[in-house]
User: Fold Amidohydrolase from Streptomyces cyaneogriseus subsp. noncyanogenus.
Amino acid sequence: MTTPTIDVHAHVLLPGIEALVAGLPGHAEARELDARRNGPAALAVNGPMVGERIPQLTDPAVRLAAMDAQGVDVQLVSPSPSHYHYWADEETAEKVYRLANEETAAHCSAAPDRLRGLGLAPLQHPELAVRALEHALEQGLSGVEISSHAPGRELSDPAYEPLWSRAEETGALVFLHPFGCTLDERLDRWYLSNTVGQPTENAVALSHLIFSGTLDRHPGLKLIAAHGGGYLPTHIGRSDHAWSARSDAGAGCAHLPSSYLKRLYFDSLVHDPHVLRELIRVAGADRVLLGSDFPFDMGTEDPLGALRAARLSDADFDAVRGRNAATLLTEGLS
Assistant:
């Protein structure tokens, strides 16, 4: 039996969440911060770009037709990161994650053999994160999607230990997908907020998980980093050097930072076949998964073509195309 082609980086838009938070205290301020970080030129493009893609983002039939055209058998569908709303208070955050989990599950239920889903966990309220994960699993989802940080908290914060523990125990997937970059207005032109901001946030978040010893304490954690892990995999030698040369850098984790890349998973969305080959070299072909960022413009409309461009061996190609993700989705929640 041929292994299905599985895209682990695809999004669903959930209008009910935006209706839920509209007008609440803190919402306007969050939108203003997002506008400052992106800049007016990016916002002028973003609105029409998303608007054109509403059918792919909301209608399962349109999604499935697009998957057929791409040669994708299965998508792991996660809420648009715009739905994180990490500004929200505890009561609102619980409403957001419950609605996100339920609506994502409903979307995927249209084709359960082809659509698997992820929910949300409110990182701004660590005490809710495990509850959100449990609720996602109860809906039949495969895990949760999180950003690279929450206001005032990095992923190395001890408050997240219960989340990592429970995800490890259940085999749930955790999809690390940044939204917004704290470099703020420095990136407010030329869409640097995304092209530089996303890979920066990935690198910072993964470094926190590595250097803090989080991955030592939770070796079975199934964490998938979007955008190929950002800048970290191709610049991991600098981290290794610091760990070896400085007592402060090496104090928190037991092994060379580069060794932890083989404990993480990465999507293939790096937009450069040479970078993809390097990611596979440092992380291992068994740790890279096909990803497209469907259907946004910073993704790829031909994920398999992007994978072929890396000129991998047949075994590595098949691993990234679907075998690795199939194993993850089979092991998790089994």
Notes: Residues 6-331 form a domain with the TIM Barrel fold (CATH 3.20.20.140). The chain has one domain: 6-331. The CA atoms of residues 26 and 87 lie 6 Å apart. The chain is about 45% helix and 10% strand.
